[in-house]
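step: validate -> pass
step: tokenize input -> pass
step: predict -> running
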Amino acid sequence: MLFMIAILVVKSCRDQRKAKELLRVNEQLLNENRDLKNSLTLSNRTAEQIAGRKDMQVQAQATFVDRREYFRKNWKQYISLNTGDYKTGFLGGIKNLEITLRNQTEYPVDNAVVMVEYVRGNGDVFKSEPYTIHNIPAKGVQTVHASNSRKGTKVNIRLISVTSQAMNFCWSHDKKVMPGDQDPWACVAAAKPLPQ
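step: predict -> pass
step: emit ->
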């Protein structure tokens, strides 16, 4: 009987060692499997990022817009005109009038013609004078002093024309726009491809 117990104990010890070994190998395989899964997930994310960047590059190339054309088409958002604080006399008259043109484009503006109207208290225009503002730098401002007026209680200002060689921009308030012209303010129209 003792002999049988000894055999069972030895066999039980061997089974326990085998079970421990199997558990250790199983745990090692689970760890390797988890590491492979994490590596595969990381590889998939990297592949998705690379594919996403390629898609973004294709989209960026497809939607590339010439900066000069963009500023020409949206010039009213980037070129603005205003007056400083001017003085009016007790019985009318305008003094110390300054006209400032602000250029927020990335290109210098060569010339801007501004019409100044001196307005009486009843709303009638007393006189109108054009002024030209030269050399407005990119992202800059330029100011011109207007003449004093013996009559008038306020002024109205408006742009008449704006030109910029660097931007290929020629705008004028009375320029006729052709129907279907996609870039009407270009001084020199872009060359169209020749028909084949």
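step: describe -> The two ends are 106 Å apart (CA to CA).
step: cleanup -> pass
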